[in-house]
């Protein structure tokens, strides 16, 4: 049986999921996140996944799971979340996408389903750097995007034809409704994925308008 290591980086750590065979390695590629983070000293954490007859086993802190590859994938998500929570301190974790256009760092926050990921894909397709589509950590000391590959719905692929093959070749799984969700690192042949603490030039709030006209207005002090 083949084996491999799936790496998922966080704000301060690098989780290394040591897989016992190729089946679990392929499944856990969904959680992989390996941006370049040369400005951050990452502390390694090794988490072994073993197999006992027909069940896989993972143990990390309070997380102890025996079950299918899907169960282990969920346990890996919990492990990443547990490490992330331990890193937050007094900082704020925003549900937001982040990217850089013309040397301007932009944080785009919105409700779930408003279109952050689709817009981030369009920005990546246009050749700009995308940091992430899910979380941005802000404290008095630093602002840093949480390392996580973009979660791209199958329905978003038609909006980025130049990236379609890249998205469809990324790790994915079938959702409850029969559609696929892909885990896509925000990088192309021409755009890298590099994360470092940054200063925010613009905060933008995105509201879904379901096909209506696009409007741009300045946020008030109360809204920010």
Describe, in short, the structure shown.
By secondary structure, the chain is an alpha+beta fold. Helix content is 19%, strand content 35%.
Describe the structure.
By secondary structure, the chain is α+β, with helices and mostly antiparallel strands. The protein has helices at residues 22-28, 69-88, 116-125, 164-168, and strands spanning 4-9, 13-19, 43-52, 55-60, 63-67, 92-101, 104-110, 129-132, 135-138, 143-145, 150-153, 172-174, 180-184, 202-206. Strands 6, 7, 8, 9, 10 and 14 form a 6-stranded mixed beta sheet that branches. Helix 1 packs across helix 2 (69-88). The longest helix has 20 residues, at 69-88.
What is the strand and helix layout of this fold?
Elements (H helix, E strand, L loop, with lengths): L3 E6 L3 E7 L2 H7 L14 E10 L2 E6 L2 E5 L1 H20 L3 E10 L2 E7 L5 H10 L3 E4 L2 E4 L4 E3 L4 E4 L10 H5 L3 E3 L5 E5 L17 E5 L18
Parallel strand pairs: 2-3, 7-14
Antiparallel strand pairs: 1-2, 3-4, 4-5, 6-7, 6-8, 6-9, 9-10, 11-13, 12-13
Round the mean pLDDT to the nearest integer and report it: 91
Per DSSP E runs of 2 or more residues, the count of β-strands stands at 14
The ordered string of helix (H) and strand (E) elements is EEHEEEHEEHEEEEHEEE
Shape: globular
- Major sheet description: 6 strands, mixed
State the helix count: 4
Rg measurement, Å: 18 Å
Measured between the Cα atoms of the first and last residue, the distance is: 53 Å
Low-pLDDT sequence parts? none
State the secondary-structure class. alpha+beta
């Amino acid at each position: 049986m083949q084996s491999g290591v799936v790496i998922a980086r966080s704000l301060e750590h690098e989780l290394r999921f040591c897989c016992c065979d190729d089946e679990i390695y392929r499944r856990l590629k969904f959680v992989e996140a390996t941006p370049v983070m040369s400005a951050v000293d990452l502390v390694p954490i090794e988490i072994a996944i073993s197999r006992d007859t027909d069940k896989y086993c993972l143990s990390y802190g309070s997380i102890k799971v025996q079950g299918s590859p899907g169960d282990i994938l969920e346990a890996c998500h919990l492990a990443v979340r547990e490490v992330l929570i331990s890193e937050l301190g007094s900082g704020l974790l925003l549900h937001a996408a982040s990217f850089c256009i013309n040397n301007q760092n932009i944080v785009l926050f919105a409700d779930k389903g408003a279109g952050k990921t689709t817009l981030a894909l369009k920005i990546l397709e246009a050749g700009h750097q995308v940091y992430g589509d899910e979380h941005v950590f802000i404290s008095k000391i630093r602002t840093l995007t949480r390392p996580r590959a973009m979660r791209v719905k199958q329905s978003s692929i038609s909006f980025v034809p130049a990236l379609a093959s890249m998205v469809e070749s990324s790790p994915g799984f079938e959702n409850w409704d029969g559609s696929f969700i892909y885990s896509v690192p925000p990088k192309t042949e021409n755009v890298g994925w590099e994360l470092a603490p940054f200063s925010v030039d613009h905060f933008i709030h995105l509201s879904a308008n379901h096909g209506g006209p696009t409007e741009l207005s300045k946020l008030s002090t109360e809204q920010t």
